[in-house]
Fold each of these.
Amino acid sequence: MRVKTDATIVAVFGFERKTKMVRPLFLCGVSAGFPSPADDYIDRLLDLNELLIKNPPATYFVKVAGDSMTGAGINDGDTLIVDRSLEATNGKIVIAAVQGELTVKRLVKTNGACRLVAENADYAPLEITEESQCEIWGVVTSVIHQFEK
């Protein structure tokens, strides 16, 4: 196993809710097998802000660089939605400032110890100690992964 460290966050964006982002929502579901031609109608409209952002004043976005969280479905270039009002409990994916650099990792608490754990075996866990200068900036609530940009 190679031991790597990376800052994985390349940009931080604030959230300002100026308008609704309403789009059609098909409640019939999307078939991954055989399509159902009877389900081709719009049931209602969906506001993406309401779906993805539960606490607007505490929400911000970050852009990911690196592959340390691919096992959690977070890829290089993805945008994460982060809520700083949520409690960073065991098992949550968090944004943390470690020695002044932002990273995204899973918070693991065991036997009174805390670690920031990557979801890629190429990256060693980061032990959180008094000396590690670690501050949790928020809990990741969603990942935006674009297939085409």
Note: Residues 19-52 form one domain.
Amino acid sequence: MHKKSELEAMSQEELIDIAKNLGIPSPNEGDRMGLIYQIIDEESILSASQKATTTKTPRKRVRVSKKETDRVYSASQGNGENFDMKKKEAARDNKEEATELKNEKTTPVISPELADLPVEAIVEKEISDNTIENNAEALSAPAPKKRGRKSKAEKAALEAAAKLAEEQATVLSDKAKQLPVMDEPITDVPLEILQDIPAQSAETIDDVTEAEVPEITEKTESVAPSTENFFSADENDFVVVEDIPIIPTEPAMDETYMTYPSQQPDITSHGLPDTYSYEAAENAPEKEIVLPKGTEPTYDFGDILTGEGVLEIMQDGYGFLRSSDYNYLSSPDDIYVSTSQIKLFGLKTGDVVEGPVRPPKPGEKYFPLIRVTKINGCAPSDVRDRVPFEHLTPLFPDEKFKLCKGHNDNLSTRIVDLFAPIGKGQRALLVAQPKTGKTILMKDIANAIAANHPEAYLIMLLIDERPEEVTDMARTVNAEVIASTFDEPAERHVKIAGIVLEKAKRMVECGHDVVIFLDSITRLARAYNTVSPASGKVLSGGVDANALHKPKRFFGAARNIENGGSLTIIATALIDTGSKMDEVIFEEFKGTGNMELQLDRSLSNKRIFPAVNIVASSTRRDDLLHDKQTLDRMWVLRKILADMNPIEAMTFLKDRIEPTKNNEEFLMSMNS
């Protein structure tokens, strides 16, 4: 019988010849596929008819042993025992025994009871038995014996029966001497012959079967119902569940073994039964899998690889740890955090999460987080029950950032430390005109805080800045620099500012002191104004009424927390840029800060730095930051400088503060 692929490979002439040989009356010579299907149909019909003619009525068989062992082979190296061959030999011997027993059945057998009777009585009994077998009605009423002399036919039959009985008795005695003891189980004997076999019951046959094939029964119970031992078989002893020839094989000594923790073997490629349980396979212990030659096993890193990043939770519940190297935006270094981990540890957007990660498996895109070891530098158990940032109690700053070390201090930081002190939780605003040195001043303040307060975490957030300033800031300031240059879209400015603010809030919730230097809040408000939907209420300068809410929320997050922790924001605001929008934005933020440091363009034009307008710069509630002696002397100094313009005041102050070593020495020199 041909297959479809074989017929498709043949030529048209060969197909027509096959169709004629099969006797197809009208083959489709023009339609090639139709002709192929006709040939396949005709061959199927012929095959079915041949099977129907050769099919015989199956005889009844007595179940003496399990049939599941017929297709099992057991082999060790090149020496194997083929149970199918053994079964066929046993069947052949049983068939010969059955034939002999059948021949004995057809020959009259003299029973021990009739051995002492005369020949005439034996013949009469045989005739009556034959009559009973041939006539069913005679079973209940056997015919009575006739009286009188017997006919010649009856006498001849009696003589033949007597002679036959003598020969049969001789044959039986010889057979009894030559007949061997049955060592093999009887499996192919018909039912009627088994009924005539005396006293050797099924128990004897079962005993012989159990003694004959103990190894098959053991293999069947341990291998056939379950597939657990299939993958853990030793290389010197294997079990195959398909009919294949026994071929001597050499052990593979150079195969590499590797255990995959969560990857189940491909059971469809091993010919397992259809009743294989996938749930049992998932719950089964891990098994060794033999990798093909040339495949390198995946190295188990364990807890060697650790990842850290700022968590950003997506709308679907899962999240990613963003890297500061990419300004907290999407990147290839993102680490996947599952929904269950987020719920278990109570994580929020902005949390700094640290923990071991593993390499992605085939089909995975990101490195998944295995477990959480630290959240914002604290233990996960301590962070879980934290109070949200919005529910923390804000206070006035009562602890000052020391900007001076006492020797070799920068003049800018010494002046700021005296006239506009910065406390933990300060909301400071640096009001500056263009080219007044606000970036340099902010850099000096950041380095002073980093040097004197290592416990504070500094973030330099540059929005809409020049790229070269970003590079300079990253190289000269001891702080984390997050930037979005002016060539980036407004959406990027807004996203970076939002995630930096969330990170600062989460750290404050855990009791840390965070300082954010924002340059500049005016450009950030411009970006929010660009991306915000139009509300219909437009202020002068084109500022949307609702656009300033989010930058105000950013700036208003600065506060000093009652029981520890603070968020300090030092932001720059641009004025006198010629833009009406900048003036409106500055007016909105003017009264929100609790510390204001103004820079004067006239001072920078004369190259007097720092270009600080001393009279206009001050800090609210500076009495909480200065001691009483310093506060009294500063009152006297401010009264003296109040009548001077910015240039005279800064010149007077520089002439007297530069000769002194530190601010304490300067304040002591005021009496002289």
Note: The chain is about 40% helix and 15% strand.
Amino acid sequence: MKLAASLSYYTIFAMAPLLIIIISLVGSVFGKDAVQGTVYKEIKGLVGSDAALQIQEIIANLQNTHNTAIGTIIGIVILVIGATGLFTEIQGSINFIWSVKAKPRKSWLKYLINRGLSFVLVLTLGFLLVVTLIASTVVDVMGDKLEKFFPDATVYLLNTLNMVLLLFTITSLFLVIYKVLPDAIISWRDALIGAVFTALLFSMGRYLIGLYLGRSGLGVTYGAAASIIIILTWVYYSSVILYFGAEFTRAFALETGHGIRPKTTAVFIIKRESTEIPSSRLN
């Protein structure tokens, strides 16, 4: 729970830079407006229209902040550090869950390696979004043609294809996170099973979290701050699912799979539980 709370706090500050980078990368292929519309639609489906508009406004304000060349360069550096910091936080947490730790090395070198690896994951997110947009376009075109012949069945077919597409995208993201990000070696099979489990759990949790946020009355309770509270709540429960999936992946790999071992640049760590002192010894 502490790891999820920490990640939620960090995500609030890293979300806008991450989305700006992804929109810029994918927007160069499909057009910025089209990508922004898709991102807004997905966020709206997760946290509601008010919170989605809040995120959209934050992104717009950040994009309009840097008008000079120097300001643009500084802005890009800040965006990259903010976006990659999110994955660095996830890396440290999964390392802890999997009981591994990077060996001590020059701090600046470790920092650059972590940031570089995190930026690769940002690019992976952009690539997955490109694939999703292409696949969605193909599905829509197929749907328009099939609807002329099978109007009733087309709706169910499109919903099923969209669900499969979303599950594939989420599974791919978790697979990359579990396989590449930690300072540990895990087989592709074990990482894939863990990613599929986490993706299914995330898909179910996505619906339940949305149901809770829709009926909890947070807007009445928190007023103007409701949008931030809703985003924070959704990110927190998503973080819990991510780390629960990491726990499942570790258990599966150790009990049934090929195990987990540290990379050559890392070592195992032993997490010791504090021993409770009997009350009789305190007297």
Note: DSSP finds nine helices and four strands in the chain.
Amino acid sequence: MTTRLIVAPPVVPADKQFPTFPPRDDMQNILHLHEPAHVPVLRRWLGNTTSIIVISELPLSWVANQQEGYLIPDLLVAFDINRDDIIREGGYAINEWGRPPAFVMEVASPNNARNDYVNKRTGYANYGVPEYWRFDNTGGNRYPEALAGDLLVDGEYQPIAVNEVEWARYRGYSPALNLEICWEYGYLRWRDPATGVYLLTHDQEADARIAAETEAAQLREQLRRLRGE
């Protein structure tokens, strides 16, 4: 009988351990990020390696044990990092990784709109985050726009062009993700600019798989009938 050695995960030093923050309690991330499975969808698009992290509600700061100034984006994407270390530490310390995350997004709610559009916008710029996006499923009743993105230029955010492609459909390009971020009828979507193909949500992937399996079963049944089986 072979004994399997179980290795305990490394202990996180106290100066690298982030404090624990309560999750959002207004259902917006659940409805607009988690239920459509946008985190794993983006992770697959970006390569799904341990040097990439796509995560929701991860604290961001210069160092883990700073006294104040933590920001907690609804969606964060970073490259050239160690995903396991970040998860163990419970946050993203800019000084540890030598760079800020490449992308953050906030999802509007009735209680956080002004904070996201004013205070967090200033905070992310001060942290040097290259891209900051905001999504408002209500179409602009909470934020000034349904969909807005900013690109950091010389330390200040400049608006990214977001175009209305038709009624209730808006689209802007994210250089960090190499994707078009879309607001469509109140839903967040991601679109490959090279092919025009949308990244599928969890439900859409399931529907496509069921449809393919059903079509394959029908073809097998037709072949059996043709063979007289």
Note: The helical segments are 28-34, 38-46, 83-89, 94-97, 113-127, 202-226.
